[in-house]
From TrEMBL:
Coiled coil: none annotated. Keywords: NAD, Oxidoreductase, Porphyrin biosynthesis. One of its GO terms (biological process) is siroheme biosynthetic process. This is precorrin-2 dehydrogenase. It comes from Suipraeoptans intestinalis. Its EC number is 1.3.1.76.
Amino acid sequence: MKQPYFPVFLDLSRKEILVAGGGQVAERRVRSLLLFTDRICLVAPEATKDLEKWAAEGRIVWKKRKIRAKDLEGKDLVLAATDEADCNEQIVKDCREKGILVNTSHKKELCDFLFPALAWNEKVVAGISSGGEDCHATVEARKHIQKLLGKDGTSI
C-alpha cells in the first residue's frame, strides 16, 4: 500500500500552534513541540501537572476553558487532543475550512500530519514514522537510530 504521509521537516519557530486538550496526549505533543518552538497556545479547562508548569514558566500560553472556533484565528498548526471525539472532529472540520493543518489524537485518517518518534544529538534530528500503522516498529527504529547518534542525544 502506498504511504500517504511524506516526511517533511518544518521550521516551527515562526508558526502559531494551538493545542486543544490538556491530557496526556496533549502533554506528549507539547513536550515534543517545546524542543522546536515556544509559540504554543493550549486551550483546555484542565491540564496535566507538566502543562500547568510550562504555562506557569511562560513556555506556553494556557487559556483555561473549552476551545472556541475563534481560537483558530491566526494559527498555522492545530492539534485536537481533547477526550471528546465530536469536539476533535469539529476542530478538524473548522481547520479544513480555514486551510489550517490539523492533527487529531483520535483518528489518524483525519490528520494532515503525524508526529514522528524523534532521536537527535547536537547536529542531527531524525524523525521516524510508520504512518500510524506500527507504533512498536517506530519505537524500535528510534532506539536503534538513537544508539547511532550517540549517548549525548536524547529521544522522545
